[in-house]
Design goal:
The structure is a single chain. With 301 residues, this protein is mainly α. It has 11 helices and no strands. The longest helix has 36 residues. The N and C termini lie far apart (45 Å). The mean pLDDT is 84.
Amino acid sequence: SLSVFAMIVFTEAIVWRGFEVVLIVNNGMGRFGHSAVLAIVGTMIRAMGAAALSLAVAPDLETWSWYYLAANSVALLLAVVVFYPRQRLRLAWRLYRRRITDALSVSLAEVLFYLQMELDKLLVLAIGGPHLAGIYAIIMRLVDLTGIPVRTFNMLLVQKLMRTPEWLRSLAARAGIEFSIFAVSFLALLFLAGVLQVYPNALGSNVAEAAPLVILVLLVPGFRNLIEYQAELLYARGQTFVRTMNLTLLAGVKAVFLTQLLISAMSTADLVFWLNAVFAGIYVISALLTYTAMRLPANRI
């Protein structure tokens, strides 16, 4: 119903985004430990809400919308009361006027980044049908889990590059970082795939159907997390407009590659396996765009 839809949108767009504001403020003030703890606690609270739903008398979508609102509200309250810095806010309009272009570029880039991340699920649903879309969504959620340590690293890297943009001029440094990100992502999904091979119901009966397919996408997390990492490089260097253009192009490329894959007559296992090639192609284009742009002078923020 419309009321259920509205409640979920309100929870995600207002309540959870309020929680993320506290995270951003802590990061901006260099309180990375507080931010990391808050991110973990917030995720745990939402997971507890999902666990509580499984014990509900009527665990339907309407009931979940109330549980979802309650869990996110608890997380927001905890964030504001315990983790929000006791700092007096000051509005310096001259600083806002100077940074409004950067702010708009970054906001648009973030929208495009999440659009190209989620567009694939809509494409799979429209072309492949609800069953394949469900399997794809489960697999990509497991891939998302591998990005948690990478995003923490990206955050620290951005801080360093903002101060010293020339730090990554060395080809050896770039290659070493990219190899490390790829290796961590690969090993993280390999571990999850191993657990699901032994205990298919470890993450619930709904995940069990997709569990045998996880081993087929071992390369996807590495390429996906590297694409995200490369986008953060441009943000750290102040090349926000270039980042926006790159993300727009990558969203289009991803849509084309996935559409071509989905309209080909393949089994579910074959489709899942060829996702490795899709993300490899997107990564190559991202790398060419990113490192070409990094030859230009950085804009200090």
